[in-house]
Amino acid sequence: MSYNFAYLDEQTKRMIRRAILKGVAIPGYQVPFASREMPMPYGWGTGGVQVSAACLTPDDVFKVIDQGADDTTNAVSIRRFFEKTAGVAVTESTAEATVIQTRHRIPETPLRADQILIYQVPIPEPLRFLEPRETETRKMHGLEEYGLMHVKLYEDIARHGEIATAYAYPVKVEDRYVMDPSPIPKFDNPKLESPALQLFGAGREQRIYALPPYTKVVSLDFEDYPFDPSKAHHPCALCGAEDSYLDEVIVDDAGGRMFVCSDTDYCAGRLTQERPHDPAFASTQY
Amino acid sequence: MGGAKTPAAPQTPEVAETPTLPHVAEFLDREGLLQPEHEDNTAPRDLTREPLDFPADRPLKLQALARGDEGFVLSMAYSTQRGYARNHPFVGELRIGRVAVSMDIPELGFDIDLGEITVSECETVNQFTGSKTEPPQFTRGYGLVFGQSERKAISMALVDRALRWEELGEDDVGAPAQDAEFVLSHSDNVQATGFLEHIKLPHYVDFQSELELIRRLRAEAMGASSGPREAAE
């Protein structure tokens, strides 16, 4: 069976590109788009996949991560999908990739201006958990009425002594739109200011938004309670990195645990540098 | 969705060879007891080709309900029967038939019939007390669904009628079935299933961040009040 390049028909890709361009022109603004049914369930990256399909060219090198890892089920499925329907080269290396689709992480390796990072977004509306109605939240964005969000953050501090949001931490883009960075840990928020183009696709919710390169992105906070991109206070048990986001892995029935990098490419890269001849840590090439 | 228009289309001689049954509602129509549906010949917005947008007009609502999950539409309809935006329906007509599915091929410039599908159609007749300008009259709810499914067709007609409260000048009693944004945003089974089942995917990165937050908050709370803990509950 043969597919049109990257599965979607050209008309649809054009429609998605128009939404992307609008998103780039208005950073942080959620552009409604006519999301298509994809051959995978909603909630499993249909938005990210449609944005990737609209961005990919035959010369691109494609990388997909879920939870920072290339070998997670969702990442493997989506990578294979574009291998099959677009015939593009794929990689696990952040540095080699030109287009990276991600769920829940920003790679540790700093991105470059010639790369595009595409996020899978479940709920694009940062105000949704405060106001369930789309008709209301669109009005609030239009009027730049973000008082509700600031009150929520203030109440967190009053109740818990700090802002009790650990992932999908809201940001303000270019002093205008409050934006949901997708469920990345807040540790990743500082990386949202990047030389790379960042695109966000929410298929089920039919929204696309964007952060053009070098866009100003500020995590919401208060002067006396500044934003803190915290992480577990451990080095990685495999590569020793102290600057990467760590997963806590249970290793035995007694509840023993170790902390390891969630970014598998970053971790493997550091291990290969250390032990270049150990094939166990060499990054797999597809 | 060709042929899904609520008012019976006048029969044209070309289709006369197909035996057609008149709509039951036409008989009530003759007495003026039934509110006429105003004909609107503008092409309806296509839910599968445009993002859902509010306020949604009736064609969009009907599309969403026709595509909606049967269990969801049924429960919404049932809730109106139990009093959440109650508007007692009579089944004016309930019928099952086959309709042609044709596809517009822009390159060819004409339609091609792909085949036939079975659909179920229901038109309900509901009370309407009238207003200052209009005497009491019956109003309609409409349901058209894929396949042989009387239950879903009736359900759809009830929910359609409940969603028409604003157009018919009725009160918003705050019932779920009156809330177009709520009903339309949650009726699609494919969306609901996908999003529900996505929680089977790994979430260990965001869970880890939450885990660290909860541990930190607990450590601070325990450290701050090393005495009796009743305040912490």
- Please summarize the sheet with the most strands of chain A: 7 strands, mixed
Radius of gyration of chain B: 24 Å
Rg from alpha-carbon coordinates of chain A? 19 Å
Order of helices and strands of chain A: HEHEHEEEHHEEEEEEEH
Distance between the termini of chain B: 56 Å
Notes on the protein architecture:
The complex is a heterodimer of chains A (286) and B (233). By secondary structure, chain A is α/β, with parallel strands linked by helices. Chain A contains six helices and twelve strands. Chain A has helices spanning 10-25, 46-55, 73-85, 134-142, 147-160, 264-274, and strands at 31-32, 61-66, 89-90, 99-103, 116-120, 171-173, 177-179, 197-202, 207-211, 217-219, 246-250, 257-261. Chain A is globular and about 60 Å long. Chain B folds into two domains: 25-31 and 53-196, no CATH class; 202-232. In chain B, helix 2 packs antiparallel against helix 4 (150-163) and helix 3 packs across helix 4 (150-163). Chain B is extended and about 80 Å long. In chain B, 34% of the residues lie in helices and 18% in strands.
What labels would you give this structure?
heterodimer, A: 286 residues, alpha/beta, three-stranded antiparallel sheet, 12 strands, B: alpha+beta, 2 domains, 7 helices
Indicate the topology.
The complex is a heterodimer of chains A (286) and B (233).
Chain A: H1 10-25, E1 31-32, H2 46-55, E2 61-66, H3 73-85, E3 89-90, E4 99-103, E5 116-120, H4 134-142, H5 147-160, E6 171-173, E7 177-179, E8 197-202, E9 207-211, E10 217-219, E11 246-250, E12 257-261, H6 264-274
Parallel strand pairs in A: 2-3, 2-4, 4-5, 5-8
Antiparallel strand pairs in A: 1-9, 6-7, 6-10, 8-9, 11-12
Helix pairs in contact in A: 1-2
Chain B: H1 25-30, H2 58-67, H3 70-81, E1 89-105, E2 110-126, E3 139-146, H4 150-163, H5 180-186, H6 189-197, H7 204-224
Antiparallel strand pairs in B: 1-2, 2-3
Helix pairs in contact in B: 2-4, 3-4
